[in-house]
Design goal:
This protein is of the alpha/beta class. Helix content is about 35%, strand content about 20%. The chain contains 13 helices and 13 strands. It has a 7-stranded parallel beta sheet. Helix 7 (about 195-200) links the parallel strand 7 (about 180-185) and strand 8 (about 210). Helix 5 (about 140-150) crosses helix 6. The protein starts with a strand and ends with a strand. The structure holds N-succinyl phenylglycine.
């Protein structure tokens, strides 16, 4: 029986600033959900950033939604599946919902002695790992950073781009690292459909994909862009649910999908999107939101499903943090092992999390 839900607020610095077309992240303002039962617990990590710049959600807003609307929906026997059904009444707020769903899943799977990977239908025991490279001050910096990640063993490089810091950057990396390196770019919605001819200049670099070139809402613009650019278009921010994914594929807005559980409301919805894409032969890959070990563990379980045929942004702990909150995830020959014990397979290390924690709020479950 679930006795209480805790919201744990904490802070962690990134090993280096991470610049995208919308912000520079230097740290993470963390929110963990802890489900506490009679003899078991479950953990989920909220992926919202401090400010609503990637999407409309932000971490303090997620806490408010959890406190006012989502936690009151939970009773002592609520399962993750029931929570997903009930919380559908609340519009949007996917990152808030996903963190609670993940904690409920971890809790119920631990009680059932099953791993999240098995529960979701994983077919791989380790997943190929890519790395997302933030916008660097100069091309020399970019080449140095990419070289370091290559030396670490990452099998795919993703470059963040924005208008003015795109074609030349990609050319420099292609020239330096050769035609065979798996390479893709991510614009985080920084262009408009009028940039189609400009973005088509990327076609000569044999990229795996261009991720989210246009704003989240402009799914129709991506249809037009897909006709005018040869490189496959992949959607991230735009794909907020199974229904949106199906619609986007139906109208050919994209040919690849980045699945981020936080962005679509959880792991159960992520699996539905995966299954849809698998049935249509559409490749998917697992995105990242600078998660600590709690979120990363669950993402690795998802990334082990058969449709995840492209390397994800599931990098090793040390790419992000000096000391992760869990036992660190390590890269071995370009792969990271998928946790295979029970639930998400990891828990926070009490002393590490304790030192990072600013506040724990506890909500009793009495129903
Ligand atoms: O490896 O976790 C990671 C980061 C991957 O590039 C990454 N995330 O747009 O996909 C993204 C981007 C991001 C970073 C999004 C920070 C939101 C905040």
């Amino acid at each position: 029986m679930i006795r209480r839900i805790e919201i744990v607020r904490a802070h962690i610095n990134l090993v280096s600033p991470f610049r995208t077309s919308f912000a520079t992240e230097v740290d993470r303002n963390l929110l963990y959900v802890r489900v506490v039962g009679d003899d078991e617990e479950g953990w989920g990590e909220c992926v919202a950033m401090a400010a609503p710049l990637y999407s409309s959600e932000f971490v303090d807003g997620c806490e408010e939604v959890m406190k006012r609307y989502l936690i009151p929906m939970i009773s002592s026997l609520t399962t993750a599946e029931e929570f997903v059904q009930k919380s559908a009444a609340i519009r949007g707020n996917f990152m808030a919902k996903a963190a609670i769903e993940a904690a409920l899943l971890d809790y119920q799977l631990r009680k059932a002695s099953m791993s999240l990977a098995n529960f979701l239908g994983a077919t791989q025991t380790k997943v190929a790992s890519g790395v997302s490279v933030g916008i660097q001050p100069t091309i020399d910096d970019l080449l140095r950073v990419v070289a370091e990640y290559r030396a670490d063993g990452y099998v795919r490089i993703k470059l963040k781009i924005e208008p003015g810091l795109d074609i030349d950057r990609v050319r420099a990396v292609r020239d330096a690292f050769g035609p065979d390196m798996l390479l893709q770019v991510d614009a985080n919605a920084a262009y408009t459909v009028d940039d189609a001819a400009h973005l088509a200049k990327l076609d000569e670099f044999n990229l795996l994909l261009i991720e989210q070139p246009l704003p989240e809402e402009d799914i129709v613009g991506h249809v037009e862009l897909s006709k005018r650019v040869g490189t496959p278009i992949c959607l991230d921010e735009s794909i907020t649910s199974y229904d949106v994914a199906r619609g986007a594929l139906d109208i050919n807005a994209c040919s690849i999908i980045n699945i981020k559980p936080g962005r679509v409301g959880g792991y159960l919805e992520s699996k539905r999107i995966h299954d849809l894409c698998l049935s249509r032969g559409v490749p998917v890959w697992c995105g990242g939101m600078l998660e600590t070990g709690i979120g990363r563990a669950a993402n690795l379980a998802l990334a082990a499903l058969p449709g995840f045929t492209l390397p994800g942004d599931t990098s090793a702990s040390k790419r992000y943090f000096t000391q992760d909150v869990t036992t660190p995830f390590e890269l071995v020959d370009g792969y990271i092992n998928v946790p295979n014990t029970v639930g998400i397979g990891v828990r926070p290390i009490a002393e590490v999390l304790g030192a990072m924690t600013s506040r724990v709020d506890s909500y009793s479950i009495t129903k």
